[in-house]
Every structure is written in structure tokens, then in C-alpha cells.
Design a protein that fits this description.
It is built from 12 helices and 12 strands. The chain has about 400 residues and is α/β, with parallel strands linked by helices. The strands form 3 sheets. A 7-stranded mixed sheet has the order 3-4-2-1-5-6-9, with helices on both faces. Helix 8 crosses helix 9.
Length: about 400
Amino acid sequence: MILGLDRLLNSPDLLKQLAGKRVSVLAHPASMTADFRHSIDALVAAKVNIVSAFGPQHGMRGEKQDNMMETEDYIDPVHKIPVFSLYGEVRRPSKRMLDTFDVILVDIQDVGTRIYTFLTTLLYVMEECSREKKSVWVLDRPNPAGRPVEGSLLRPGWISFVGAAEGLPMRHGLTLGEAGLWFKKTLKIDVDYRVIEMQGYKINEGPGYGWPLNELSWVNPSPNAASVSMARAFPGTVLIEGTTLSEGRGTTRPLETVGAPNIDMPAIFKAMEKIAPQWMKGCFLRSTYFLPTFQKHAGEICSGFQIHCDQASYDHELFKPYRLIGLWLKAIRTVHPDYQIWRDFHYEYEKTRLAFDLINGGPQLREWVDASGSVAADLDAICVPDERAWTEQRREFLLY
């Protein structure tokens, strides 16, 4: 498998098309060649005229641990170019920033979930480059969550920094390059957009099912995206960010492990098996205790479970992380009817809309959890038509 970045570096024809251009790069710590050279270093070595760079949420260097921890602009100490933050004073590149380049190369590792903000950053870059007649090249990378689709579509009125566009499901099954193609056509963005495709990428084949195991080493694209297992579980576990429960931040397995103090997990597991045992399949749920060292419930023992999705019995098609976490919340509501699940706080600079609904792209999942007498079929009635519609709509944008 050859990454888009490595294809560019090894193609005299592609490099020639950048000759005489002022080039910028949108990147982060996982923007590496297959032989562990950062994209900026490798492009400079290939004589590409790199004049500036941009970093997304968590920074070009990936040092910012949590949400709403902003990054400042700085001068790269090696290449002496400005590195602009798209998660600081601005979320969209300003005209001053855009004026530094003719072409921007987007080389960021995504995780395949709508809420992961790199997707929104790509959209913002495309829109602003359209206004200033700049070119956007996406150096495509694998989607570690693979092709499966899950979750309801983002509802009208729920666009945000964690929900780039109406009509996207939580687990969209696109590479970043493919997502840009969808943005360009669906949102009618008049931008010079190009995908430098990967070669030999087999997104549907095991055991990686989207991630080329034993070919490409995992580098954290953000501090809590620590493994392929996290990327597989994230379409569900990210929902816990909008609750009072712990998504495992402050542990060594964030967003693979979930739990809380003072909940009866044996009873909750029984309730889950009664409500929708089919949503627990494909992975292994291991009961566990953990003590977060920071963030929610820091210093408190939490009971919960770790989602294992890297063992021999893992079933990529059966695994439904969005429904699994929805089921856990429903079971908590069943066992502990008065438990304060929903967390009312500022989330990604949103001060009015409930964080959980913002993450979910609408109130429908929370309403299902809270509704007395709602059953698994009721949530399927919401999600299945959306998933089928998206699977058909995305078909023309698939490159692999």
C-alpha cells in the first residue's frame, strides 16, 4: 500500500506540477511517510517550495491534550516558515494566511467519524480556498474505521465544528480525500480540488479492514487517538464526551474504555443483553475498573468496560459501536432511572445546544434513551433508513 504522500514524493510528474508554486501543508504528527519522515521534511527534501504550514485541532505538534485547548501560531524552528493554527484565534484560514500559498497539500490522518474535527477543518479550508482561488490537494490516507456506515444523519440545524454538514452519518466510511469529493459536489464548492490517491489500498480486507496492518505503523493523529481499536470504537465512545460518564480520558485506553463511579455494571450488562443483545456482537466487552488521572471523575474508581476489537473473533460488519454505546446508556437509564446522564457544559465553543445532541447531530438518540418503553427497533427505525440512504449517496465518491 502506498500513501498519497509517498505517491507524490515518488512521482516526477506530480512534483513537476508543483514546480514554481508556493506550497503550504496542513499536517499533524501522523503526517508521516511510510519510512517515518514528516511530510514537511520530506517535501522540503524533494525541493517542493514549502512556504507555510497549518495545524488542525491539537496542533501541528499534537501537544494539546483536550478539547478547547487552543494552539498559537509559531515559526517552524527548522524550516523557518510560519505555522498557522486552525484551532486558535481562527478555525478558518484567514486571507492573510491564504495569501502565503498557491497550493495547499492536506496530509492529515483522519479516523472516519463525523465528529472528529479534521473533517470540518478540511471543509473550511476548501471553502476559503474557493474564495481566494487557491488549489487544494488531499494526500489521501487510510480510514482506520473502514467502510461500514452507522448512525443517523446530521439533522438540519445541527451543523457545528463537530458536525460539518447536514446529511453525514456518524460513521461515514470515507477517506478524507473521498469526503472532500462529497463536500465539493454536495455543497457546491467551486474549488480546484484534487485527491492524490493511495495505491494498493484494500479498505474492505481483513484483518485491518481499513487500516493496513503490518504495513503502516500507527501514529497518534491526536493525543487520545492511541490505536486502531480507538478508531473502530470512536463512533460510539465519542458520544460519552457529552455525558457525565467517563470516556476513559486520563487512562491509557481513552475512548476504548467507558465507565463511571456508582453504577451497577453487572445489572447494566444484564439489561443490555435483554434490550438488544445483537448490538453487543462483533467485539468483546471486558468488565474493568479504572481510575482517571485527569478529566471527568479524576481520582475516582470507575466501573465499566473496555471494547476489544482487535482479537481473532472480531467481526467488522457485526460490530456496531454507535448502537453499542446507545445501548449502554439505555441500560443505565433502565437500571438507574434518576441517573444524571446528560452533561450541560460548553462543548467546542457551543453554549446553548446540549453537548450530547451536538455530538450526535440532533436529539434523536438522547430522546430514545430517555423515552419510557422505547425498544431497539425504535432506534433502528431512525438509523437504518439513514444508513441505507448514505450508503447509496456516497457510492459515486468511493475511490477504493
